[in-house]
Amino acid sequence: MSNSEKFKVFISRSDMPESGVDILKKQCDLKVWDGPMPIPKADFLKSVQGVNGIYCCITDKIDKELLDAAGPELKVVATISVGYDHIDVKECKKRGIKIGYTPGVLTDATAELTLALLLCTSRRLPEATHEARTGGWVSWAPTWMTGPGLADATVGIVGFGRIGQAVAKRVKSFNTSQLLYFNRSERPEAKEIGASKVSFDELLSKSDFVICCAALAPETKEMFNRNAFKKMKNSAVFINTSRGGIVDQNALIEALQNGTIRAAGLDVTTPEPLPLDSPLFKLKNCVILPHIGSAAIQTRSNMSEMTANNILAGLNGTKLPAELD
Ligand SMILES: O=C(O)[C@H](O)CO
């Protein structure tokens, strides 16, 4: 393509980290959505007409209707995320549209956040700071604000890919007694980490902490349902930093209200943002974060650069640096 007819790329947010946008600016004709976020569907459909590439994020549904609206010139869709459950992968493949995502660069940030959320939930930090600020801190007290520690605990990780393994390595440094994992396939890396593969049921019944790092797919949808929570210890702490759809949220609310499990820490919910009147916000034993797993400054820049490079490769017809196969 000559300079006068650059590739057309649509970017669905005006606040995508600059480092990636700068890469694209030099070589593409960029159209950036700067209206309300996330981009309303009707605007999305209009904005993508005739583009060659789409730079999107997890709130943008890339479905058949959107691909139809974009038309036959669309070569690549790249998401600034490792998760791709918002993209109709089959439909893209059928049309020969390449999909880029951002595995690897956010592993450390997400693992860090998972640990932060776990400690926050088990040691009741939001409750404790609230008490300190509002006069509940009357005196040091032997049993006040106590919660389970990680030392000598059994930790179960569901989904043992990059992020699950990074979480396991970090958790181990807290002197846990046992690391269990549940994954579709056996992971060779588990041996060195010191984690044992068990069935989902065994993980649920033995773990003091259950951490969900699995990707959302038809097989994992609502795998944490009423039955699963019943199999967990009453003292268990549940952490989810992957996708809200993996949990039957009503079952979780019930489990937290009834003491079926002790507490939950969630970086992801259904829907997002979680409505302010959700019962989850009323529960002291639930810590909720607004999906900030990968929100480390440098990580987001790296993700943006990877997204841009995925787009450029897709436009030029070469293998993407991180292509979904
Ligand atoms: O899938 C992802 O990358 C996260 O959920 C958002 O960074």
Automatic annotation (TrEMBL):
Listed transmembrane segments: none
- Has keyword Oxidoreductase? yes
GO terms, molecular function: glyoxylate reductase (NADPH) activity; hydroxypyruvate reductase (NADH) activity; NAD binding
Q: Where is the D-isomer specific 2-hydroxyacid dehydrogenase NAD-binding domain?
A: 115-293
Cellular component terms per the entry's GO annotation? cytosol
What keywords is this UniProt entry annotated with? Oxidoreductase
InterPro entries linked: D-isomer_2-hydroxyacid_DH, D-isomer_2_OHA_DH_cat_dom, D-isomer_DH_CS, D-isomer_DH_CS1, D-isomer_DH_NAD-bd, NAD(P)-bd_dom_sf
> Which Pfam families does the entry mention?
2-Hacid_dh, 2-Hacid_dh_C
Instruction: Using the record's annotation, list all stretches that form the D-isomer specific 2-hydroxyacid dehydrogenase catalytic domain.
Output: 15-322
Q: Which PANTHER family match?
A: 2-HYDROXYACID DEHYDROGENASE-RELATED, GLYOXYLATE REDUCTASE_HYDROXYPYRUVATE REDUCTASE
Protein family (similarity comment): Belongs to the D-isomer specific 2-hydroxyacid dehydrogenase family.
**Which protein, by its recorded name, is this?**
Glyoxylate reductase/hydroxypyruvate reductase
The top of its lineage is: Eukaryota, Metazoa, Ecdysozoa, Arthropoda, Hexapoda
